[in-house]
Write a structure and sequence with these properties.
29% of the residues lie in helices and 32% in strands. It is an alpha/beta fold. The strands form four sheets. The chain has an eight-stranded mixed β-sheet. Strands 2-3 form a two-stranded antiparallel sheet.
């Protein structure tokens, strides 16, 4: 089993931490995000090979991981120019995984305890599905104020979760041969590929209510560090 970690972004909102390294190497409680990811992939589905779809400061990744990590083979699909998530996945598949039937692709800025094997079983149980997307409940970045018809404030709720509103969780299980024709040379899988799968019922969602963190700012970084290690508060 192969997994692609999308690692080409510059992580501008995490400067100065990303001035000399890709976003996925930002440390969470002393360990890089992508180290958490590789260990999770190995634990959940015994992944054998990880392909970093990388570009910006990719040499730092190679310096850190080399050719293997904890028994997992590490490879690097290097973009000369930014290709977007769709273009990066296509290049990684063609570079290293074109003979694979099913591969995992994930954003390099998330940490989760998703039971990936269950998601894999759901994907394989539907033969017409080309891709399965993790979806998680939308969590507001702001406090919500509830008012009645008379505009009287009745309730405050700090950063609530909306269980009936779903967002892309950044983990995908894809049938590589079937999806290749839909992947752009340059562009995002979310905008260029998935909309093409929807009319034919080839895109499945896998809802998950458990732990999932997206790290895109210093505030996000602090929140995930506290969640993973409450003693640091």
């Amino acid at each position: 089993m192969k997994a692609i970690i999308l690692s080409g972004g510059q992580g501008l909102r995490l400067r100065p931490l990303t001035e000399d390294r890709p976003k996925c190497l930002i440390q969470v409680n002393g360990r890089p995000i992508c180290e958490y990811q590789i260990e999770w992939l190995k634990k959940e589905i015994n992944v054998e090979e990880v392909i970093f779809a990388c570009g910006y400061r990719w040499e730092k990744l190679k310096e850190y991981f080399g050719e293997s990590y904890n028994g997992v083979k590490i490879m690097y699909s290097v973009e000369e120019k930014m290709l977007g998530t769709g273009g990066a996945i296509k290049k990684a598949i063609l570079d290293f995984a074109d003979k694979e039937d099913v591969v995992i692709a994930m954003n390099g800025d998330i940490i989760t305890d998703l039971e990936l094997e269950r998601m894999m079983k759901a994907h394989k149980s539907s033969p017409d599905i080309t891709a399965t997307m993790l979806v998680v409940p939308y969590r507001s970045s702001f406090g919500v104020v509830y008012i009645d018809k008379l505009k009287t404030v009745r309730k405050f709720e700090e950063k609530p979760e909306f269980p009936d509103v779903w967002i892309n969780g950044g983990v995908y299980i894809i049938n590589s041969r079937r999806i290749l024709k839909h992947l752009p040379e340059k562009g995002d899988i979310e905008r260029e590929t998935f909309p093409k799968l929807v009319p034919h019922g080839e895109l499945m969602a896998y809802p998950y209510y458990g732990n999932w963190w997206y790290i895109d700012s210093m505030k996000d970084l602090r929140e995930v560090e506290l969640s993973l290690n409450p003693k640091t508060s």
